[in-house]
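Minutes, methods subgroup
Present: GH (chair), OT, SY

1. OT presented the first of two proteins processed in the latest run. Sequence and structure tokens recorded below as shown on screen.
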Amino acid sequence: MEPSNGTQISQFLLLGLSQALELQPLIFGLFLSMYLITVLGNLLIILAISSDSHLHTPMYFFLSNLSLIDICFTSTTIPKMLVNIQTHSKVITYEGCITQMYFYILFAMLDNLTLTVMAYDRFVAICHPLHYMVIMNSRLCGLLVLVSWIMSVLNSLLESLMVLGLRFCSDLEIPHFFCELSQVVQIACSDNFLNIIMYFSAALLGGGPLAGILYSYSKIIASICGIPSSQGKYKAFSTCASHLSVVSLFYGTSLGVYLSSAATQNAHSSATASVMYTVVTPMLNPFIYSLRNNDIKRALQRFLVR
């Protein structure tokens, strides 16, 4: 392929998780199964919450938003990967790559902000229980979701416009199963200053929500420790156990992937490890909430019986 700049590129090559032809049917079946489980599980959570009036509370409103985001998050990457495996092709167009990257960043940022909003909701519920319904009113809940969407859209647009300014040379192979921002930046032959700005922006907007979550849970833990009875402590902790599990899984896997990739500089290992937070975490979220939450279990049972 001839050397080209950012305006002449027509396509990239997604190398996927493995080059071995004999593994492609296994990868196709595995990812198709995980994708269907993710969509079905999160859809059931949304339907159960919307059909049960007892669950029309701020906590479950944010949970249904998280489930919707997880469906969209996985839908930006897995379908294209499955199509490429089925058609024995590695090609993704330049426009398709930028579009995929835009929506991937959008829903990843929404995941971060929604988990932060859910942590704030649990903070108010445990630290200010008497004022919970006054503080977490429907207007504030809607405003928090709206602000999360606006911030995510603007951040994703900014990152995508920066990528449009990159120049690419002859190496247009992306060692990943989707157009991941850092991998695309690494194959560019532009000035590193733009790359530094992109990484700084991603770190700032990713670290900010994490700091908010850590602050909320530090206050929650301090409040729980101040409860005199062990039964009261258990009841307070159980209200945020599911969310804490999801937060630990999402941030633990994503931070682990980026720290390990920075240490090893192995692109294929990074692509394989990124499956944990791009595919596995959205798939496990419905199970975590349905298994650890009696209200969700009862709502699912009523919905399925109906």
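2. SY then presented the second protein from the same run.
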Amino acid sequence: MDSIVDSLSNAYQEFVAAVAGVLEAKEASGVQETGATDAALENFKQRWELFRVACDQAEEFVESAKQRIGSECLVDEATGAVAGRTGQGTSSGLPPISAVRLEQMSKAVRWLVIELQHGSGASSGHAHSPVPFDTRFSEDAPQ
């Protein structure tokens, strides 16, 4: 994360310096376009693009972290890990499910999304699910 912050900070500083360079070149040349103003504008354009790339990378990192944290919270809530750590009961009133069962359901959902994206949809038949649920790990399955 530090490298992303440093990269964004450096790109911003270079972008600001490029803006200053354009303003200085314009002031030095007056109203006329010169090679110096053209070079300053080209440098500005490059620094602007680099700054945008750094912002996009930082945004991707934040989104990835949000998804990871959300997934971890979902697993904790579903498996009752939060209640076990804090000593409180489950807030939803639903019995916790095993992490294995949750992973199986997650895989099944991912496969369904892939099938839908590839246009096979419901016509492919759900009996051929690539990740069948294993009820041995279900909390409510008979043992």
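Chair's summary of item 2: The chain is about 70% helix and 0% strand.
Next meeting: continue with the remaining queue.
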